[in-house]
Structures are given as structure tokens and as C-alpha cells.
TrEMBL record:
Domain of life: Bacteria
Keywords of the record: Signal
Taxonomy of the source species: Bacteria, Pseudomonadati, Myxococcota, Polyangia, Nannocystales
Chain segments carrying region Disordered: 178-279
Name of this chain's protein: Chitin binding domain-containing protein
A Pfam family that the UniProt record links to this protein: BIM1-like_dom
Record's compositionally biased regions (Low complexity): 178-218, 230-245
Listed InterPro entries: BIM1-like_dom, MYXO-CTERM
Biased composition (Gly residues): 263-279
Position of the signal peptide: 1-28
Amino acid sequence: MCAKEHIDMHRFAFPVLAFASVAVTATAASAHIALSSPLPRHVEQKSGPCGVGPNDMRGAEVATFQGGETIMVRWTETVDHPGHFRISFDDDGHDDFADPAGYDDFYSNSAVLVDEIADKQGSQQMYEQAVTLPLMSCDNCTLQLVQVMTDKPPYEVGTNDLYYQCADIVLMGAAETTGEETTTGETTTGEETTGDASSGDSASVGTTTSGEPGSSTGEDSQPTTGGDGTTADDGTTAGDGTTAASGNDSEGTGSATENMAEGEGGCGCRSGGAGGSGSAAGLLLLLARRRRRG
């Protein structure tokens, strides 16, 4: 190889290396954040809300999650800047996303899920943040990651204090969650209200009410009207079916026969259908005792 050819090759190689160096530097400068889970729709991140301006389109990478699920969002800060990160969610496209109005403007709109995620010192820092997704179903939802840098001119036209990346996602399963809640409600209603209070307790009360009073009525009527004679208050029988009150000697008992005697001829005793003659004999016996006392 002659000296002239050697010089020409060096002249050609220098512009190529210079161009490659500029391209690598530009790529590194533009990639301040790199979303890794879920995957971003593209690598662009300069213009909001998702990297290339308001006319940004949904990409080919779509992640599917359950409505209400808590996921781990992971990303890398490739270029170190002081500041913080925020994560937002839009259930239909990306028109609900809004830039923060200042460095301390946290949770500035309803789309924000997590805000003020602290920056780590140094480049190539890995981040992961637990995020609970809304309890809903949607097939055109978007998750947005924003890097807020506090060492840049703040919030002016043409400045680059914000970087954006978005992930296209789908939420499934909100209907299944609603069904579980309904099932739980039916279980509670069936066991506590219908089963125990209405069916179980009512049956128990019915048995107790109709059974015990019935038995009690039978027991009360048997000593009074049953048998072959008349029963007095203490239920003691005498002779051929005539019942006499065993407490006649004391003035506090035998109230039925004593009331009859005090009424002089009035009958205050209880008589049975077949014990009429026995009642008359008992009456004469009591009158005789009364005369003896007198």
C-alpha cells in the first residue's frame, strides 16, 4: 500500500468515527429513562405525554393485567439528574395525562397513581415501584412514567425538564371481582338472615311455643278433670274419688271449701262430672268440723 492510499483511508475513517460518536452521544442523551416492565411502546421520550407528542399512537407491545392488581413497575435512569418520578394511568388513550405545574406539584390530577418517587444518586440506577391498578376493565389503557428533573430550566417552552415513557396495557377481570363480591353477599344473606334468623330460629321458636304450652295444658287439666273423682288444689284424693284439701286445719289453705262454708250454703268447690255425691259428703264433714271449732 502506498503512502497516498494510506492517507486517504485515514481521511475517510475519521468522518465515519466522528458520526458514530455523535450518534451514540445523541442516543445516550435522549435515553434518560428506560422502562423495562411493562415494556414501553417505543424508546422516544422527549415530548409528552408519551415521548413523541400528542399524536402518539398505541404500539405493538401490550401487557395484560387484572383490574385492581398490584404490579411492580421497573425502569432504569440512564442519565443522572436530581428530581423525582411519577406514574399515572389513563383508562382510554393518554389524554388524561397532565404535566406537573412545578417541582412540588404532586398528585396534580386524578390520573396520577404514585408521585414523588425519590431520585437515586448516580447514573444507571434501577428502580421498581409497587403500583395498584384501578379496579376496572379496559382495552385501551396506558401507564405513563415521567421523570421530573430539577436541574433544568423549569417548565418553560423549549426546555427539557421532563422525560416521558408510556406502556400500553389491558385490564381484565373487573367483572369477576364484582361476581365474587356478589357471591359473598349472598352467602352472608343466606346463612345469617335466611338460614339462622328466619328459618332456623323460627322453627325452633315454633316448636318451643306449640310444644311446651301444649304439654303444660295437658298436665294442668289431668289433675283437675281426669281420674274418677274431683281434685282439690293440692291434688290429694280421699275415699271413693272425693278430694279433700289436706290443709283445712290451717286457715291459709283449702280456700275453695272454706269459701263455701263461709258463704253459708254457697258452693265454692270444684266438682267433677261423676263426683257429685262425694262432694256432698265432704261438705257435711266440713260443716261438722266447723261446728266443733265453734
